[in-house]
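Researcher: Before we compare anything, I want clean individual predictions. No alignment, no superposition, just each chain on its own. First chain goes here; please echo the sequence and then give the structure tokens.
Model: Echoing the first chain and its structure:
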Amino acid sequence: MTTRETILELVAAWHANDALRAGGFFAPEGRYQESGREAVCGRAAVVAHFTRFFRDGPPWRFEIDELVVEGERAALTYRFAVKGDGEGWDERAGCAMVRLREGLVAEWREWRLV
């Protein structure tokens, strides 16, 4: 699987609320870090993090705007939104740097765009 395919399949697993499948795209020692938060380290911790969010979090959306890939590195811009009060969505833009090793995510690090 290419780097692009890995990232798109990971996001598809998120959209399906499939924490176990999403975590399977991470290396055993992989790191996942959302903007402004501590890194989640290790595949088991990443699966637990996704499981809690999918189970306890609000309705959400994640859409990639642009994805640039070079070898096992990628940069992407995205929009993340959570269901707000009433009918509205609270949306924010962000970017992520992704590094794969041997086809698995070694690091996913996000920054919020203002």
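Researcher: Okay. Second chain, same rules.
Model: Second chain and its structure:
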Amino acid sequence: MMRNVFESSVIAFQALWAHKLRSLLTTLGIIIGVVTVVGIISIIQGLNSGFMNQISSLGSDVLYIDRYPWVMQGRDWWEVRGRKRITLRQYDYIKQHATLASRVIPQVGRGTSVSKGEHSLEGIQVMGTNEYGLQAGFGPSDVAEGRFISPIDVSRNRMVIVIGHKVATTLFPDSDPLGEWINVGHGRFLVIGILEQQGNFLGNDMDSNLYIPYGAFAKTFGSWRSYTVAVKVNDPGQMEDARIELTGLMRTARRLKPREQEDFAINTQEMLQNFYNNITRGLWATAIGIGGISLLVGGIGIMNIMLVSVTERTKEIGIRKALGATRWNIMSQFLIESMTVCSLGVGVGLGMAAGLAMAVDKLTPLPASISMTWAGMGMGFVVVIGVLFGLWPASRAAQLNPIEALRYE
């Protein structure tokens, strides 16, 4: 059996080599289809991996009480734009009454400038928070040097600051930032810590962030801004219970009547994940649709070349049948040839898709990766398309009358 397969494959390659241009044009549809499907899917998989790694820092056990929902569609913005800000009084109420929370963390931020001597940076994000600020996600998980904000810093509204890695290297290229004073907006702050290097998060440079006590933030930048309240839940299994509890507490804190609509949002990591999945679902459908059409065209091309091959080799088929070849021998010969043509298209397509993914990964900000799963599915294409579109020509060859085939000129 293996010998017959090998011999049939050799004959198939000889037939392809004898008609190189025709074979190339035949496999072109398969190549385009494989490159399209595997190329787009490799980019989507790379994006999925990068996105999930980034939003994992938000924490699956953290709820974010905010003025607006993170995901808005259609006219949602016009319906929520007039909402009242979330205040420190409401943060205090949540902190005192939330029974399922292990941490309640206020967050308020704005863009500002920062400078030290002749060195300065513009467009830096300064965050006002408490001693648990690093547990709320959206940033580094620990301090590389020095310390983070302490409860005493928060209670006394001390003018202390923890700076990101980029800020430290820019303002202090040749010295140690710890214990130095820097200008942030119109205030002066003492550097007490340097954050771990973090990189980008959803397009934002996290190494340019600054953290100060939220009371010091109010003194320096004003207390009129709306806060985000991050609530770390005791048990991830209690997320829904915690959401219900926080909804009730916020309605009370904001003095909403029973029939009044909620004028705040409770956001979760899952919301961003679902929104992202909805976007990539369209890309999946596009990739499969375009690739499917290309594979269909390629399959029809394979069928066409196999029908031509049957016609050209009619006398050969007659001789083989006269020498004792069965219908299955003839049929398997042409099916193997069909799958050989398809395998060439899939192999070239996978190689080009891998090269495309590597180029995208190295030359652009988009991550891309090809998994062995898709390579295995490519081999599945060989079997399915080769058999599906080679079946009719192979059956036609097997049904030829040997006497009439020998007379064919």
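Researcher: What stands out in the second chain?
Model: The chain has two domains: 2-54+273-407, 84-263. Additionally, The first helix runs from residue 2 to 18.
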